[in-house]
Design brief:
The complex is a heterodimer of chains A (266) and B (400). By secondary structure, chain A is of the alpha+beta class. Chain A has one domain: Peroxisomal Thiolase, Chain A, domain 1. Chain A is built from 10 helices and 8 strands. In chain B, helix 2 crosses helix 5 and helix 6 packs across helix 11. Chain B starts with 7 loop residues before the first strand and ends in a 6-residue tail after the last strand. Classes of the chains: A alpha+beta (266), B alpha/beta (400).
């Protein structure tokens, strides 16, 4: 068995239906606020003209990533980034497939270049002048766990802080029925391999088998978790919002979980 | 700059493209300077361009036990896996290390989207037709999910989808996981197949050539799209290692534009420097570079200048996209395999398709095939979104 990947959380960002940022999420989890109405993700890292025309996946990923990086105090320009998404921008994929089925030569060039899975991380690196490595990955329904494993691996292997963003937008059209993604969700973490006494520590170990999802008992949280592959982050986000040390398992692949020890600084 | 890395052994590798099935078909075509591009007969509506199509895929269904995964992309992956003894090499690794210690890390840009497109062409009352009601297909993760299922592997399983750098970057994912002891072996590589999304998509960007592509030609007119699959099995080096080595990789971002490269090739140059640093070598140690060389105006301009200013004339360089077309998310692994063949056979592939060299090109360009020992070689892969990767390979014992 390999030793655990040990990383410290320097920043967190989150957008869920009814929770427009991490503070709002913490207030809901702590019972201080009820889930609000949906607010368009605020991706203020993007220049205003890009923000106006950005696809939803780009806005969602950049909003969560921007919040996490701001909290971390790190310079986004030097942070390697891993952007995880099960399905990419389903609205654009639906548009592409519908257009190709009818009038293929009228396909929009802008929609085409925005359809690539790495469009959100591409726009992110352009907006933040980031020349570090950037990746766009999918692990299907287990994309969040696969992304967390990959980002922690990159942080420890290269001894460098890493930005992880995991996002999925709601499904659209005939494709939406196949992906069964019923609502948008994004979470972002800045992970550091360097000890920080004030920060939450994660010890991450691959562990054979899939244990299945364990509900939090909070109906809103469990509803969000069931709506979106990236929302498999909900049990971890729940523990972080309550600042509670715990151990949990997150699915990272078929027949592979990651065991995550969450150690909150006392 | 990254630290030098311990090399990895490439225990097995294979590729299938318009040049044929498996390594020897590629070596033969490269030796004969015989390209695989043909007039487009694939797209669902006419499109005047040339393509690199894999012959006979239509007669190669998946075995019944894998029928849920049936689509052109997984078919091509399965066809490629059956060449060069690759399946046996993976099964052997699974036997030696256990299913949870072998990762599947694959690159693709469009995965099974051809099946999703087909569903939209024949919707049943606005819904996906019953025969395509297969959730595993309608996601970018279809390819990696299929390969993990086909080999019954239970280690980390990841799709990298960074457009045309995808199946180069997976070598880096594997190296990190093996170095940290998370796994003992990794199946890396990727597959991309022809589909309307890329044919009409690149056409909408006016990047597709009306003639077979001519990388680094002064009068080049754009890319020719191809399809390919390739795979490599990576493990730690042991005393018994005889095959080629992965000695370095570099990854970097342009931070410039979604669909055109940085004008000075900044991201490409950082990726190159990182690959050399991880390999612990200098540019002068490199015998051959397989270039990204898509035949788009901008890519070739930027890459030609990068090579001309970074390497001595003894380093030989060529693009092989004139043979195969641009195989997009599979280009990284296809051209890694071609680079490893150059090393195996001591033969530099010629830069097929160019007749009038772009004056930006330096003396490094191998316009025609050359006989030459290749001890250390690089392969460049650059993608949309300014996503750059560079791989470094060596024969056993190199760098000395």
């Amino acid at each position: 068995m390999s030793a655990a990947l040990r990383v410290w959380i320097k920043g967190i960002g989150l957008w869920a239906p009814g929770a427009a940022n991490w503070d709002a999420f913490c207030a809901i989890v702590g019972g201080r606020e009820a889930p609000g109405t949906d607010i368009r993700p605020v991706a203020d890292v993007l220049p205003p003209n890009e923000r106006r025309r950005a696809p939803e996946s780009v806005l969602l990923a950049a909003a969560a990533a921007g919040e996490a990086v701001r909290m971390s105090g790190r310079d986004a320009a030097t942070l390697p980034c891993v952007f995880a998404s099960a399905h990419g921008d389903q609205t654009i994929t639906d548009y592409m497939c519908a257009t190709l089925a009818g009038t293929p030569t009228e396909l929009s060039p802008t929609k085409f270049h925005n359809s690539v899975h790495n469009a959100p991380v591409g726009y992110w690196t352009i907006a933040t002048h980031c020349h570090a490595s950037s990746s766009a990955i999918s692990g299907g329904e287990t994309s969040f766990g696969a992304g967390l494993l990959e980002a922690a691996t990159l942080a420890v292997a290269d001894d460098h802080d890493v930005l992880l963003a995991s996002y999925d937008i709601a499904g659209a059209g005939p494709l939406g029925e196949m992906t069964a993604t019923t609502g948008p969700f994004a979470v972002a973490l800045v992970l550091s391999p360097h000890a920080d006494v004030g920060a939450v520590r994660l010890d991450i170990t691959p562990s054979p088998g899939n244990s299945g999802n364990s509900p939090t008992g909070n109906a809103w949280l469990d509803g969000v978790a069931a709506s979106n592959p990236s929302a498999q982050a909900i049990p971890l986000a729940h523990a972080l919002a309550l600042a509670r040390s715990t151990a949990l398992r997150v699915a990272a692949a078929r027949e592979l979980d990651i065991h995550v020890d969450v150690e909150v600084a006392s | 700059m990254p630290h030098p890395m311990p090399p990895l052994s490439i225990r097995a590798y294979t590729a299938t493209s318009a040049l044929g099935r498996g390594l020897d078909a590629h070596a033969d075509a490269l030796l004969a300077s015989r390209g695989g591009l043909e007039p487009n007969d694939f797209s669902s509506a006419p499109l005047d361009c040339w393509i690199g199509r894999v012959a006979g895929l239509e007669e190669e269904p998946l075995p019944p036990e894998l029928a849920e995964w049936e689509c052109r992309n997984n078919r091509l992956a399965w066809l490629a896996l059956r060449q060069d003894g690759f399946i046996d090499a993976v099964r052997d690794a699974r036997e030696r290390y256990g299913a949870s210690r072998v990762a599947v890390l694959l690159g693709t840009s469009t995965s099974s989207i051809g099946a999703t497109e087909e569903g939209y062409r024949r919707l049943d009352h606005g819904r996906m037709p019953a025969d395509l009601h297969r959730r595993v297909l309608h996601t970018p993760h279809s390819l990696a999910g299929f390969v993990a299922t086909a080999f019954d592997l239970e280690g980390p399983c990841l799709t990298v989808a960074t457009a045309c750098s995808s199946s180069a970057k997976v070598f880096g994912n594997a190296e990190r996981m093996i170095r940290l002891g998370l796994i003992d072996a990794a199946v890396v590589g990727g597959t991309d197949t022809l589909c309307d999304s890329v044919l009409f998509g690149f056409n909408s960007l006016e990047l597709v050539s009306g003639e077979p592509c001519r990388p680094f030609d002064a009068n080049r007119g754009g890319i020719s799209i191809g399809e390919a699959a390739g795979f490599a099995l990576l493990e730690r080096v042991t005393e018994d290692t005889t095959g080629p080595l992965l000695i370095g990789y570099g990854e970097a971002s342009d931070a410039h534009h979604m669909s055109t490269p940085h004008p000075e090739g900044l991201g490409a140059e950082i990726a190159l420097r990182d690959a050399l640093a991880r390999a612990g070598i200098d540019a002068g140690d490199v015998d051959y570079i397989n270039l990204h060389g898509t035949a788009s105006q901008k890519n070739d301009e930027v890459e030609a200048a990068l090579v001309a200013r970074s390497f001595p004339a003894t380093t030989r360089a060529s693009s092989t996209k004139g043979f195969t077309g641009h195989t997009l998310g599979a280009a990284g692994i296809l051209e890694a395999a071609i680079t490893l063949l150059a090393m195996r056979d001591g033969r530099i592939p010629g830069n097929l398709g160019a007749t009038t060299p772009d004056p930006l090109c330096g003396p490094q360009m191998a316009w025609t095939a050359e006989q030459r020992e290749v001890r250390i070689a690089l392969s460049n892969s650059f993608g949309f979104g300014g996503n750059n990767a560079c791989l470094a390979f060596a024969q056993v014992g190199e760098p000395a």
